[in-house]
Amino acid sequence: MKVVKFGGKSLANGEGINTVLEIIEEKIKNEERIAVVVSARGKTTDQLENLLEKASENEDFASAFEKFKAYQISEYDFVDFSEEFKNIEKLLEGVRLLGDYSAKIKDQLLSQGELMSAKLITEILKQRGYKANFTDTRKLIKTDDIFGNAQPLDALSKENVLEHFQEFNGKTVNIVTGFIGSNAKNETTTLGRNGSNYTASLIANYLDAEELQNYTHVDGIYTANPDLVPSAQRIDQLSYNEANELANFGATILHAKTIIPLIEKNIPLRILNTFNNDNQGTLITAKPNKEGMKSLSVLEHTALLNLEGRGLLGKSGVDARVFRALGDAQISVSIISQGSSERGIGLVVDAENAVRAVKALEREFESDFYSKDVNKISVVDDVSVISIVGQDLSTFHKPYDALIRNQIVPLLFNNTVTGKNVSLVVKKSQLNKALNVIHGEIFEICKKINIAIFGHGTVGGTLINQILDSAATIEERKKVKLNIFAVSNSRKLLLHATGIGSEWKTQLEEAQQEASIDEVIKYAKLFHLENLIAVDNTASEAFVQNYNKLVDHGFDLVSSNKIANTLGFDFYKELRENLEKNQKQYLYETNVGAGLPLIDTIRILHLSGENITRIRGVFSGTLSYLFNTFSAEDRTFSSVLKEAIDKGFTEPDPREDLNGNDVGRKLLILARELDLQNEFNDVKIKNLVPEDLRGGDAKTFVSRLEELDATYQKVKEEQKPNHVLRYIGDLSGDLQQDKGELEVALVSVPDDSSLGQVKGADSIFEIYTESYGDRPIVIQGAGAGAAVTARGVFGDILKLSEKK
Ligand SMILES: Nc1ncnc2c1ncn2[C@@H]1O[C@H](COP(=O)(O)OP(=O)(O)O)[C@@H](O)[C@H]1O
Ligand SMILES: N[C@@H](CC(=O)OP(=O)(O)O)C(=O)O
């Protein structure tokens, strides 16, 4: 004999019930001996609960009840539900008059769902010529008096079931109501929500079934609830112990007690999908899993109580009193956490019992309030418990760290001493994100990094395309999924939770949404996006003012914009402190030398205690080109400059390069990497634009370039032999002090020196340190250009992704 159980969604009108009937018929035709256990159909139990609430609040339930009836009858008007409908109506009317209901009444009402379901399947099978027998488990499963969560009395129930099946089996298929039973007074009880599979496993036990098949609407048991974690994976096989832990910790797919009756008789349980014929499902047997299984389960509707008081410290018997008080009120505690300080005891109970639990504790500890041993019993509503089944504390830091990085701080956590299990209590609003973060971390499947990109000029646009082009390869090789969920310019904002595609530019132009940092933050919250990175590719000072807000809302920062690092030192410090407080990072490798690994090298040298004594170099690709060419060729300064302008190497107004401010800013950024507290004013800058050409617009300046020739020709000719001109930034002085000496100057260097040998538009940086003496570390290469800068920004994003 096999016991076959069908869940609510499987029995829903349409495809569900039709498939269920096909499955049953097929088994009968194959001469399999089966007993069928059914849940209420579709959402019947929830709907009955809603009707009950409506009635108790004296709301009109007539139209909802009509809809309910129509759903039950559906196309099966040959089945007579008049008795059930009458019962339901009578109960609801009574509740409406009283304005309240008891657990006993609720059980009577909810039981109608399973009764109608079993009756319907029986009648249809009979109509199709099969021998089917409606089996009401209120006559078979005897339970205690705990309405809503009744415990079956095994000996008596078993006797009844065996007797019933002896009488009504053979070629007849029993269609059995799940979920319901009755107490000694024959009053209807229920075994608790999701209890039909418990009924099925009890029946399987009593009948010594060879297998229990649980037909549901998912492909089996997953590493987490697939409704909440899209990347959850189906588990092929589980041991009884593992499945039992999962059931106990809230995986609604199994009632908490389903597994126990199966263990005793060694009955395999198969979870199958009614709607997916080819699927293997999950097989649960006594066989232990070699590798050990991990899975996440959730208790969603819970509340956290906290009993606080100085007098609790060291006082004996407090726990016993807590449990007694709650036990007497029939409230079970799912987690208890006790500190040894006066902060007291934390308890997790079902949300619906929270108010009663507080009352019970207040009553129990009344005298302790007077003596001030207890000063507060507080409740945090709307919490959820996530249990990582199969997790011990040795590697728990990984999911825990990932939660903190994502700004989810558990309210409480707790582990089992034997067995492997860690439970965390989180705010319900954070449940979805927390589950996905933990799941991503534990299963080391693809980590999703959610990126918002601000500014899509040459660097930003190139970056977006670089990311889109390499995302698939990175996902495969590094198991990191780069998801650009937001792109914004100063006017508009494009949002896409699952990631923008190659059409982003036109979509942004057509976007209705105005640019707004608050919208980006709100969107990330709404879609529970984890591992957030904001990328600033603007050159805007106004945008920098958003950095702290982004950090406060869980974003790490990557920026090619230099402004944040060159504003006043106060801002620089405040941002660092805020990053530290929020445990966020800010990477800006491209601020100096574009994609060259300069800032990282300096940071590592400095952190490792290596004394950096001087940094000198050609910081600007544009000015590198200008002076390399001017020094090497026999041409006027203006003709070389004109060529640079025509090739687009300069800013639209070339004076922004020639005034040296950009080099000055880069120098300041490096100085601050060494913990120097310099301000921009401290940088001595040689402005290459003569004073009389500094005013006026760019066009006029460009028309007067020849006026620069005499000065620079003279400088060139006055050099020593075999020397060339270079425009350099130089950080020197005693770099162990608060401030260094920063200078940007036009200098003449030997043509065979490292600075003298630079070619084209390359940048070069010499890092002098105590250990390297007078032979500096030299970093040289293309230090400008959209493609290399975008690569550098991309590199920062990947660096952050690895740490997440
Ligand atoms: N680890 C898990 N694996 C699969 N489903 C899970 C898991 N945890 C929770 N669930 C939930 O259990 C539901 C299936 O159980 P249930 O609704 O009782 O099905 P049925 O009514 O078909 O018996 C799924 O829709 C899913 O939301
Ligand atoms: N109808 C009941 C019992 C039930 O559906 O059990 P299962 O989830 O095992 O099908 C409920 O909704 O709680």
UniProtKB/TrEMBL annotation:
InterPro entries: AceGlu_kinase-like_sf, ACT-like_dom_sf, ACT_Aspartokinase, AK-HD, Asp/Glu/Uridylate_kinase, Asp/hSer_DH_NAD-bd, Asp_kinase, Bifunc_Aspkin/hSer_DH. Residues 306-365 form the Aspartokinase ACT domain. It catalyses: L-homoserine + NAD(+) = L-aspartate 4-semialdehyde + NADH + H(+); L-homoserine + NADP(+) = L-aspartate 4-semialdehyde + NADPH + H(+); L-aspartate + ATP = 4-phospho-L-aspartate + ADP. Residues 455-589 form the Aspartate/homoserine dehydrogenase NAD-binding domain. In the N-terminal section; belongs to the aspartokinase family. Its cofactor is a metal cation. GO terms for biological process: homoserine biosynthetic process; lysine biosynthetic process via diaminopimelate; methionine biosynthetic process; threonine biosynthetic process. Residues 597-798 form the Homoserine dehydrogenase catalytic domain. PROSITE patterns: HOMOSER_DHGENASE. Homotetramer. It comes from Zunongwangia atlantica 22II14-10F7. Residues 2-273 form the Aspartate/glutamate/uridylate kinase domain. This is Aspartokinase. PANTHER family: HOMOSERINE DEHYDROGENASE, PTHR43070. GO terms for molecular function: aspartate kinase activity; ATP binding; homoserine dehydrogenase activity; metal ion binding; NADP binding.
